[in-house]
Amino acid sequence: MTDRRRFLSLCSIAGTGVLAACISNREGKETQSRDLPTNFSETAIKSPTESPTPTTSLTETNEVKTQAAKVYPTDGDSGDWFGRSVAMSSEGATAIITTLFEEGTNGDGAGSAYIFETSGESWDQQARLTPDDGNSEDWFGRSVAMSSDGTTTIIGATGDEDPNGDLAGSAYVFEDNDNSWGQQAKLTPGDGDREDFFGVSAAVSSDGTSAIIGAHRDKNSNGEEAGSAYVFQDRNGSWSQQAKLTPVDGDSGNRFGMSVAMSSDGTRAIIGAQNHDPSDGEIAGSAYVFKADDGSWSQQAKLTPDDGESNDGFGSAAAVSGDATTAIISAHRDKNSNGEEAGSAYVFQDRNGSWSQQAKLTPDDGDSTDWFGSPVTLSSSGATAIIGASQDEDPNGEQAGSAYIFEANGGSWSQQAKLASADGDSGDRFGVSMAVSDDATTALIGAPHDEDPNGKRAGSAYVFTL
């Protein structure tokens, strides 16, 4: 692997807040070979011997939330980064959790994804997914999205070089047919090229027939690394590209497509460009609203925060309600009353086609370099948001990470709870990834650097009952 490929791949993989850790992980990653199990029905839940101690934020009105389970793969090993990306079905009964550096059958850094299902209080591992043509350093699992019924999933592989060149990237569609998961399609853009990092982000419609996939380093008419997002559709079992989306005012280095979100019906999308330079300053960031009418996509709005400033990184993460009238967009490097790079998240609403900022969210106990807003997720109704702070040190130590629940009541947003793992430790990066059920009663949160029980940076994921 060339030095350039290593550097670029690490930048893509790291996302918000984990580049330094990523580099040290790859240089010191253990490469023990191991036999992979052939039967994945064995349970993969760790139930603490004592009731976990939930954490709350600092206001008396906050409700206590209970950690229901800790989940990890039966074949986990050190350096896997299990929990780097997660997604969940609408009712919260099926989850997909990816490993980024798991080597498995396809080579070092090939990546994989695991399906877990719950019946009652037990979460069971049902399948392990890898692509038919997987290879070393594909980074399969960089992004993931799941249909409402939990039977279709889109998985990004930003390091894949087939067919468009080194680090061009790809995405894979897997489907569950009668409890048997299989690969249905491999998606690549019609104009893909090397170092596009297609697959860095992904979202899917409720019925699993429309998907949007980001390629944040794509070179297009807007310049080098301007970025693009691609819409794909499934028609009678055959997937094809429907549109390539770029912003009207795009420019070199914007990294449009770093984050994507899609409405339930697949006709609206929010796309982040965290390095865009609007009037707010260099690398302040922007987000764009696109809409499809009769299959034709067009830009509807450009979103920027009222108080945006240079280096905020607004657009690094995005989520949207089912009807696409409420969006939450992060600015994980925002400087606010909590300190430098404490981070913020902004709520925007669409009223009769006009988008406006409704709220700016920050945690009660935020601090410098918490990177609050990496990532964000939103309930189907748009009334509950869960926001990660993967570098927060309270209560489990430096860069242990946490997540916050915010709810809207009559248009006013307030913090309701703070979540942290019961067995958390320094460097776990709890909150790097998250998903929530449609009704906001179940949350899944990844901690890709957790070492218990599978080794250093093996990773795990936590289920919370909200």
UniProtKB/TrEMBL annotation:
Q: A Pfam family this protein belongs to?
A: FG-GAP_2
KW Repeat (keyword) present: yes
Q: Where is the composition biased (Low complexity)?
A: 47-61
Q: Locations of Polar residues compositional bias?
A: 34-46
Which Gene3D superfamilies is this protein grouped with? Answer: Integrin alpha, N-terminal (2.130.10.130)
Q: Note whether Secreted occurs among the keywords.
A: no
What keywords are annotated for this sequence in UniProt? Glycoprotein, Repeat, Signal
Q: Where is this region: Disordered?
A: 27-62
What are the TM regions of this chain, as residue ranges?
A: none
Q: What is this protein called?
A: PKD domain-containing protein
Q: Please give the organism.
A: Halorhabdus utahensis (strain DSM 12940 / JCM 11049 / AX-2)
